[in-house]
């Protein structure tokens, strides 16, 4: 590596960032050299996204500073970050599908012109062709509408836009999440070419095999801190995983070692055979009465589609049966009638009726039980709501209080109570404690264990590995739409879950 390439162009010095109740970054220290591919890895919640957002100018640090070429800078906006040569390509691509490739690549120049109609179209095409040719995409017509491109082509268009903006440091956020092997190889060729031209690449990814293939150095983040930055010299996936996992797990007691043993002859409550849908490829499993079954995996593993597919919210193939009765696709009411209930991850957007009262939310999935001749039985609704509030120890001022005025933990309890009113035999939960505080989490966990001990089957889909370890007697790990491993007993540990989710 030349002296110029060994030069640190961007430094993160003691950066701390807080959100209400959360220390997202804790005195981060890391430097990025010219002409290197620098991977940043860590579990969900490690602080990677917050760090990238600060470098991109979307967030500002509470403490510490960013230095560019040794000078302290403050990026009060993304425009200032881009002016310093820092450009980010997010996992959710920021392109306008109805506009042409040239329009998207030249958008930053168009925005600075006072009269858009006077933009020289042929000059735009020429510059666009130059940027595309630099990335080996000379065959792509600048006039092609972006909405007609593949995801891989869209990603390269974003990179071409960054190249045209004279990016010195290019951040790629999960760039391979939706690409085929061939498309990934093309992306890697572009990354290596930019590195050879002196561009610094920050490569953020959960996929450790690709990190080891492409990175010169790797920074491991954990719990908002930088744990280590290491040269990529024959590092194994196992070595990286151990560095990512190394938190004190003394407070996480695996439920698999404490859960009451289930009789081997207990029939499955939920049977899933050859389930396939968008993101899920031919998976099969069962859940028995009284069991908490956990499902983990990376964001692109397919786990996040599982709850909707089971409950009938999306088209799918395969057989799903509750107590021997087969459930039909696109029929959530049929799922409820046959004993399945579902608590989605999006508590505010999809799970809760925020403008309605606590009592109305509790009975929302069971209205036929509380109506007579087309009229709601208000007294019955109040009795049921009081019973669920007491059972779940929800903190409310009165039954007429709007759900949206409750804390996140109490909202989740009320939504859970709504599911319990349906008297389910199988309870499916997606990210059951997302966005709620530690105390409320512990209360939710105790409730779920109590529900399981009453004989209800519980399926917990979660991105939080300690949550799975602490509550699931058995864990299925998903990767690439399939079940990559099944963990029970002493094998339910953080390293094993990460191995199943990340290792090739």
Question: How many E strands?
Answer: 22
How many distinct folded domains?
3
Q: Describe the biggest sheet?
A: 6 strands, mixed
Strand content of the residues, in percent? 25-35%
The CATH topology of the largest domain turns out to be Rossmann fold
The CATH homology group name of the largest domain: P-loop containing nucleotide triphosphate hydrolases
Describe the structure.
With about 500 residues, the protein is of the alpha/beta class. Helices cover about 35% and strands about 25% of the residues. The chain contains 18 helices and 22 strands. The chain has helices at about 50-55, 80-85, 100-105, 105-110, 120-135, 150-165, 180-195, 210-215, 235-245, 305-310, 330-335, 345-350, 360-365, 380-390, 410-420, 440-455, 465-470, 495-500; strands spanning about 10-20, 20-35, 35-40, 65-70, 70-75, 85-90, 170-175, 200-205, 215-220, 225-230, 270-275, 280-290, 290-295, 315-320, 325, 340-345, 370, 375, 425-430, 455-460, 475-480, 480-490. Strands 6-7-8-3-9-10 form a six-stranded mixed beta sheet, sandwiched between helices. It has a six-stranded mixed beta sheet with strand order 16-19-20-13-21-22, with helices on both faces. It has a four-stranded antiparallel beta sheet with strand order 2-1-4-5, covered by helices on one side. Strand 9 (about 215-220) and strand 10 form a beta hairpin. Helix 5 (about 120-135) packs across helix 6 (about 150-165), helix 9 packs across helix 18 (about 495-500) and helix 14 (about 380-390) crosses helix 15. The model has no long low-confidence stretch (mean pLDDT about 85).
